[in-house]
Design brief:
The chain is an all-alpha fold and 247 residues long. Helix content is 52%, strand content 2%. A two-stranded antiparallel sheet has the order 1-2.
Length: 247
Amino acid sequence: MLQTPTGGAGSGTAAAGGRLMSIGGVLNQLRDEFPEVTISKIRFLESEGLVEPRRTPSGYRKFSAEDVERLAQVLRMQRDHYLPLRVIREHLDALGRGEQPALPAPGGSRELPDGFGEPDADRPTAARVGRAELMAAAEVTEAELAEWESYGLVTPGPEGGFDAESVNVARLVADLGRFGLEPRHLRAMKAAADREAGLVEQVVAPLRLHRNPQTRAHAEATTKELAALSVRLHAALVQTALGVRLH
């Protein structure tokens, strides 16, 4: 669940008593559960009508606790159910009318594939989705997905289908595309990500080869932790290089 961060009067975050918070405060709250969320993502969801923050006379966004929870609902439905924004909006509107609609399947009409959604205790690998589900989640065409594949930004598994991280990548590539960034512009990001993954592999390789099963299991947790730290460092370095100030 979202936690209310603490801070001084100038921190721009919500405190007890229902105070409004800035977009930077919203980002800080959401990142505990959604490390990949960005300021641009929040602004995009606002532009799509999924959240309507108040505006100060000077034009700054101010979000209520209800706005933050609504954003969290949107992000959960994207992450856990791979739903396009149109379907998410319709679902939330129905909830707002006091209805209790069933959560739609990916793509709006198809049943969830076996193992998709709630994890199966006997299924150690993550569920995969087909091309139609991925295109619906990212709201892109077959031609756009094919172009991403040609640049190595999104890659299906050996047996076909895409894992959850591929869906996240597709959404982010689509979001960047709305700002005019084309797949060819993202090759440097892909190369940097591959180098970072190589560094992580160097660190965890000895753990994976260890005789002790607990040590080998620890390698997976270490990989996830290093990946999360790498993402946070990358975001911080980009914001520092651009002189970005969250407000």
